[in-house]
Amino acid sequence: MIMAEIIILAGVVFFSRYFFLAPGVPFRPGAGLQRFLSYSGPAVLTVIWAPIVFMPDQKLWMNWHNPYLWSALLAGLIAWKTKNVLFTTISSMTVFLVLHLWVLPDV
């Protein structure tokens, strides 16, 4: 039963991607649908990073001793200013490492 569910869900994911990306399919979404779908990437990324930043130990951690919070704020600022993904990733990871190992090690 579980294998059947996995196969069915894999088919749903594949065909939903294929439907929008295949050049031979005559469907072209309208401007409203394209605008609506443009929010799916940021929504999925927020679902991924928000629990990591605000709940690293499965409980809410909202104070200034949270190295995840500082690194996320820095990453947002750098991404906004530079628009460079590689620089944003490396610099925010470096700041997190420094904060986590040396500045706030006992937290």
From TrEMBL:
<dbReference type="InterPro" id="IPR008407">
    <property type="entry name" value="Brnchd-chn_aa_trnsp_AzlD"/>
</dbReference>
<keyword id="KW-1133">Transmembrane helix</keyword>
<keyword id="KW-0812">Transmembrane</keyword>
<dbReference type="Pfam" id="PF05437">
    <property type="entry name" value="AzlD"/>
</dbReference>
<keyword id="KW-0472">Membrane</keyword>
<feature type="transmembrane region" description="Helical">
    <location>
        <begin position="36"/>
        <end position="55"/>
    </location>
</feature>
<feature type="transmembrane region" description="Helical">
    <location>
        <begin position="6"/>
        <end position="24"/>
    </location>
</feature>
<feature type="transmembrane region" description="Helical">
    <location>
        <begin position="85"/>
        <end position="104"/>
    </location>
</feature>
<protein>
    <submittedName>
        <fullName>Branched-chain amino acid transport protein (AzlD)</fullName>
    </submittedName>
</protein>
